[in-house]
Amino acid sequence: MSMKNSLLLLAFIAIASAQDQYANTATLANPNPTGSFAPQHSPAFPKINTKIASSLRVTAVPTGAVPTGALPRAAPNLAGYPVAWATPPTDSAEVQAVINTIDWSLVPKAAVHGGNSQTGPSMSGYPSSDPYCDWSYNLCNVPKVKYLPPDIYYCPSPDTWGLTYDDGPLNPQSSGDPYAEPNLYNFLAAHNQKATLFYIGSNVLGYPQAAQRAFQDGHILCVHTWSHPPMTTLTNDKVVAELYWTLKVIKETTGVTPRCWRPPYGDVDDRVRSIAWQMGMRTILWDWDSNDWNIKGPDGGSLSSSTVDGYFSKWIADAKKTNHGHIVLEHELSDTTVNVAEKWLPQIQKAFKVVPATECFNISQPYWESQYRYP
């Protein structure tokens, strides 16, 4: 596992430990509420090389045979991006332009939490009344302000499994790495399965060919920030930068602008939600966590493989026992998480209707480009 993945694992452990006491406190919210929400718009993306995405020749929802096999060795030339795996600077003209489009009167004045990716957000001094719907505090998923919609975190229809994978695209960790993409994507193609993929911008920058393949395969691409920080520990401007550069690298690589995002570790409050919403994205979380990232290995982890297998076994056994479906948190983070995904998907498909998380809510246009209308 690379140093980058090791740091992610440590951060997952720190934040998950802080959240264990809240594991059973979530309540269902109406996923399609009526109401008047704050205006949304997609940021403008100057200095994009449009030839990169146009070379894919994908101008509508991909249909027909799904591409498989090896990815092209030559990567598109993506220039002008921040350093990978570091919080992007906020003083660039592009980020400042987005900052100036946001209605800051609609961004709640929640304090920036202390903490970082190694410790998780600090709740020290946060009011017990949870005035800003802080997910890391008590799994809150219905904003306290009425101009933001509830988070998407479960599937309304029973027997439905919202399939999601975080932290991709999985870059090669060494020459000939058999677990890097397109391993998982080829597996999904072989099983005629689409998923919602929450992409880290730095990973797209490092392996744009994989993002292009996923898009060509018909998976739904969403934002998972540039460097995977707990978002409530960032200032407003840094939140904008994390989201903007991830949106841009996906746009330049594939030609589409996501309307969905997932905060790393689920760490979000109404301040961060409002910024993401005004940048064109709705928050998608989960109600079942596979904890695949926490399997014991050379770089850490505290769970045995059998423990994680037990989660999947129980979910399959209980498939008919709940009155709604579920959005499940899985990862394309390492060889371990890819093995878990490939081991369990065939059995999940037998017990559930497995769909991308966005499809749970009949979201037919997950991108700002209107020509991409999904079933």
The name of the CATH architecture is Alpha-Beta Barrel
CATH superfamily: Glycoside hydrolase/deacetylase
Q: What portion of the residues fall into strands of 2 or more residues? A: 5-15%
Number of helices: 11
Spans of 5+ residues with little confidence (pLDDT < 50)?
12-27
Rg is 19 Å
Helix content: 25-40%
Main sheet record: 6 strands, parallel
CATH class: Alpha Beta
State the end-to-end distance.
37 Å
CATH topology group? TIM Barrel
Keywords: Carbohydrate metabolism, Cell membrane, Cell wall, Cell wall biogenesis/degradation, Chitin degradation, Cobalt, Glycoprotein, GPI-anchor, Hydrolase, Lipoprotein, Membrane, Metal-binding, Polysaccharide degradation, Secreted, Signal
EC number: 3.5.1.41
Catalytic activity: [(1->4)-N-acetyl-beta-D-glucosaminyl](n) + n H2O = chitosan + n acetate
Protein name: chitin deacetylase
Describe the protein.
It is a single chain. Helices cover 31% and strands 10% of the residues. The radius of gyration is 19 Å and the shape is globular. Strand 3, helix 5 and strand 4 (196-199) form a beta-alpha-beta unit. It contains eleven helices and ten strands. The model is unreliable at 12-27 (pLDDT under 50). Helix 3 packs across helix 8 (236-254), helix 8 (236-254) packs parallel to helix 9 and helix 10 (305-317) packs parallel to helix 11. The strands form three sheets. Strands 3, 4, 5, 8, 9 and 10 form a six-stranded parallel beta sheet that branches. The two termini are 37 Å apart. It is α/β, with parallel strands linked by helices and 375 residues long. The protein has a single domain (3-361), classed as TIM Barrel.
